[in-house]
Specification:
By secondary structure, this protein is α+β, with helices and mostly antiparallel strands. It contains four helices and four strands, in the order αβαββααβ. A four-stranded antiparallel β-sheet has the order 2-3-1-4. Helix 2 runs antiparallel to helix 4. It starts with a helix and ends with a strand.
Length: about 140
């Protein structure tokens, strides 16, 4: 095979391979709404922000909230080691992001015994909590 034909073949194979890989990616259809349109995002500031033990204890407690049946998805996190920018708030220590099917499910979560026990058993760890409740549009 000539060098130029081989180069053309390899280029075409690479382009077709990349196109096939992209086509196989699981993208949702355009206009497809999230099946869990209510998000509940909570940020916690620890009383002892440098305490890994307190942070890990709170993370453990937040993960336990996932047992509440109306929570459809839960993401528990700590600060990511991303680029520092003026628009990024890095003052908090633990975050929870929950998704619910509807506002009624979120209301049930608020009064669920597991949530009430969480507040009772872990609130001594935090100095401040900020909540953002969001409805998908």
């Amino acid at each position: 095979m000539k060098k130029s034909n081989r180069r053309k073949f390899l280029t075409a194979a690479a382009v077709l391979g990349a196109g096939t890989a992209v086509a196989a990616m699981p993208f949702p259809p355009a206009g497809n709404k999230n099946k869990y349109p209510v998000a509940h995002h909570v940020f916690f500031w620890l009383k002892n922000p440098d305490s890994k033990e307190d942070r890990d204890k709170l993370v453990e407690g937040v993960k336990g909230l996932g047992k509440i049946p109306t929570i459809r998805e839960i993401h528990v996190g700590v600060l990511a080691s991303t680029e520092k920018r003026d628009v990024v708030d890095t003052s908090w220590q633990v975050s929870e992001l929950m998704f619910f099917s509807d506002v009624a499910g979120q209301a049930t979560y608020q009064t669920h015994p597991i949530h009430l026990d969480f507040v009772k058993n872990y609130s001594h760890l935090w100095a401040k909590v900020v909540v953002y409740d969001v409805m998908e549009v």
